[in-house]
Amino acid sequence: xxxxNQNIILYLAAYLIAGIPFGYxxxxxxxxxxxxxxxxxxxxxxxxxxxxxxxxxxxxKKLGAATLFLDAIKGIVVILAAKMLGAPESVLxxxxxxxxxxxxxxxxxxxxxxxxxxxxxxxxxxxxxxxALIAIAxxxxxxxxxxxxxxxxxxxxxxxxxxxxxxxxEVPGIGSHAPIWVIALIITYKHIPNIVRLFKKEEGxx
Length: 206
Description:
This protein has helices at about 1-20, 20-30, 45-55, 55-85, 90-105, 115-125, 130-145, 150-165, 180-190, 190-200. By secondary structure, the chain is mainly α. The protein has one domain (about 1-200). The longest helix has 28 residues, at about 55-85. The radius of gyration is 17 Å and the shape is globular. The protein starts with a helix and ends in a 7-residue tail after the last helix. The mean pLDDT is about 95.
């Protein structure tokens, strides 16, 4: 019963911590901008960069980088904390999924949120370091070449899925790629407006 209660606390903590809208808070505090009502309305690093750039390009880069870092770190922290408490792989993967859900559907923003890329790669970096590093390298390379954040993120996500199957035909501790697919589907779902704009050739560059 005590272990069950610990898991429930970990699940709740993962959802709430990952739900902290760092992009929204940073833009509001340091640039006086409500990014939920500006640009794409997203709370992620790309929208912070785009919106704040109109006022202060130098500040925009700093806030965009800080948002990206903090959104990734909150995913990393919740997994590492659970690891320190001896949580099994099945619990860690559940926490990973809940962290992405928390970021994308934040309780602090009436269940709205970001697209889950940074937080998703954060949790996956802990759970599957090598596939995650491959995905991040592909993401950065695509971003530099294409300069389209959404497309680069989706390409990075595909790279992770492929690498995870090659390196881990059976996921240690659970034997299934199911939680990875849940994370991938959430991120893809949050990118639907971007995908539509990509097909219409209307997606903006960074």
